[in-house]
Amino acid sequence: MWRLNPRTQKMEGYFNGGKAGHNCWGVAFDDFAQVFHKSGDRPDGYCTVPGMVGIPDPDEYNRVGNMFFTNPKTTSLDFIGTRALPDDVQGCALIGGYFGNVVELHRVQDDRSGFKSEQLPKLLRSISTAFRPVDVSVGPDGAMYLADWFNPVIGHSQASSADPERDRTNGRIWRITATGRAGVKQPDLAGMKPAELPGQLRSSERWTRYQAKQLLFDAPSDEVLKAADAFIAVENDEHLLLEICGVFEAHESPRPALLARRLAAKDARVRAYGARVVGNWADRLPDALALLGKSIRDGHPRVRLETVVACAHVRKPEAIEVAAQALDSPRDRFIDYALTQVVKSLKPQFLPVMKQLKLTDAHRAFVTKIATAAPMVEHPGRESSMTCCA
User: Fold this and answer.
1) Which is nearest to 313 in space by CA: 263, 349, 268, 266?
2) pLDDT value at position 388?
3) What dotted CATH number matches 254-376?
4) SS3 string of 310-354?
5) Contact indicator for 368, 354 with CB cutoff of 8 Å
6) If the chain, 390 residues long, is cut into consecutive pieces of 10 residues, what is the mean pLDDT of each piece?
7) Which one in 97, 129, 154, 367 has a CA-CA gap of 20 to 30 Å to 271?
8) What is the DSSP string of 173-189?
9) Shortest CA distance to 314 belongs to which of 352, 283, 357, 344?
């Protein structure tokens, strides 16, 4: 799985070597910018944030952050957020079951610093083995759209490429609506000027907010930043300010005052995102470590998790002093995984000056044990990326 910043052309890789599933197929964000991804080679998907630490050989993540359990293999992922669909599926994950000829809904639930999920009754099931929903999304009208590969034969070496049953011509797109609910009529976003687009972040429609932010990314920076600055001058809603903070990130234009408001928000989900932004802006903030030093003591575990991950982006020896403070509060498997990866990531920075660092005895022992451990060896029987596919 990779993250590309189109503006700077910086690319970062995570979960290399199949550490969180081979064949990543589907990345989605919830309403508070938490990241999730789906693996196409297995029944699992993942909450992504604990592993967003770029190191060459991360530890196995599959049994730490896996969720969206299905049977058999599924792929693609989107979150529902539209008044055109029933209230009881809002926030649910929509997943395509290409292998089992199904479409699924999963309810996402908090699990301390991370997440877990519960599968709801199947949204759609077909007795036809040619039904292959390989991509799913919620469209501008609020309906669910399924890209159906429509092929009775799938796979690589499992069947001959010349198998006459392979359908090389047809494909279908299914549209699923809710009875008794009107479709959404979208505003003319493409016809709006940058000054008008921030107001669309108030929409209850996820599709509208996403497209407005995409247009704000593509528009000239001077116009967008002027509009965004005017927006935050009069807006106090915590979630809206989280949304607009992403616009400043997209234009590589830090706003420390706005960030401070995110870190002091009442909603822990907003504070967690604020900690992530500190990491993203660390090279342009004079007090990044001081800010993270406060967040690492936050009462909510998700804020502490995001703070640990953010420390990996502060390429200074002292960053490990902040990350290690996660040991002083209740932890879970997500924080433990992230902290271990951050220690490995920052090892070149802190190990040469280890004696000078301000670490408690317990923190020093923990960090030293991880930093000096021998690299783990993969199990020889691990499935390869050549044989894992459908």
Assistant:
1) 349
2) 36
3) 1.25.10.10
4) HHCCCCCCCHHHHHHHHHHCCCCHHHHHHHHHHHHHHHHHHHHHH
5) yes
6) 88 86 89 95 93 92 92 92 98 95 97 97 95 96 97 84 89 96 98 98 97 97 98 97 96 97 97 98 96 98 98 96 98 98 97 96 97 68 37
7) 367
8) EEEE--TT-PPP----G
9) 283
Q: How far is it, in rounded angstroms, from Cα 75 to Cα 94? A: 10
Beta-sheet strands, E only, within the chain:
2-5, 10-13, 24-29, 35-39, 45-47, 66-67, 75-79, 93-97, 102-111, 114-119, 124-125, 133-138, 144-148, 172-176
Q: Which residue type, as a one-letter code, is found at position 230?
A: A
Tokens of 186: 């979208």
Give the total residue count for the chain.
390
DSSP string covering 238-273: HHHHHHHHHHHHHTT---HHHHHHHHT-SSHHHHHH
Annotated domain spans of the chain = 2-176, 186-252, 254-376
The pair of structure tokens assigned to 310 is: 């953010």
pTM confidence score: 0.93
3-class DSSP assignment, residue 367: helix
Output the six-digit token pair for 375. 């690299």
